[in-house]
Amino acid sequence: MPKSKFVDFKAVKAVVTMEQVLEHYGLLDKFKRGADSLSGPCPIHKGSNPTQFRVSISKNIWNCFSECKHGGNTLDFIARMKGHLIVTHGTMDTCLVHPREVFRAAVVSSAAALILMHNHPSNDPTPSEADIKVTRDLIRAGQLLHIEVLDHVIVGNPKHNSLRELGHFYN
């Protein structure tokens, strides 16, 4: 698979600024510019207070000081704007997942792509054979629906693994 198909999240965070993201969503004109900051109403919970949402331009991070009390980097903001969904809860060693549930929200929201993520309670992010099989099944289901599965990330503590980076994705 060509390297260009990989999503390098560190690179995305490094090159995409909060100003660009706010401009993309048509929100930048609602923000007041300071020396190293932007402030305005929180676009996540549709607040009206003009100082409740602040962006540090030099650090490229944001914080809401009102209802949602969230903060983070550009990808965190995009996830909050576009949404994320918990599809299923597993047990200590098993999680039942079906493409119908995984792709339901993606179809309803007309998503072109999605990223799968789950944790391993053992904190070892090494993918199991079942993880690899489910990932490949979901990739095939996504191909039928024309919804690309960009990656499947397994979270441990303190590490994580990308099944795409490990070579478990295919064309």
Report on this structure.
The protein is α+β, with helices and mostly antiparallel strands and 171 residues long. It has 2 domains: 9-78, Zinc finger, CHC2-typedomain (DNA Primase, Chain A, Alpha-Beta Complex); 84-162, Cytidine Deaminase, domain 2 (3-Layer(aba) Sandwich), CATH 3.40.140. Helix content is 29%, strand content 20%. The chain is built from 5 helices and 8 strands. The strands form 2 sheets. It has a 5-stranded antiparallel β-sheet with strand order 1-2-3-4-5, covered by helices on one side. Strands 6-7-8 form a 3-stranded mixed β-sheet, with helices on one face. Helix 5 links the parallel strand 6 and strand 7. Helix 4 runs parallel beside helix 5. The longest helix is centred in the last third of the chain and has 17 residues, at 129-145. The radius of gyration is 18 Å and the shape is elongated. It starts with 8 loop residues before the first helix and ends in a 9-residue tail after the last strand. Mean pLDDT is 83; it is low at 1-6.
Structural key phrases:
29% helix, three-stranded mixed beta sheet, Cytidine Deaminase, domain 2, 5 helices, 171 residues, 2 domains, DNA Primase, Chain A, disordered N terminus, 8 strands, alpha+beta
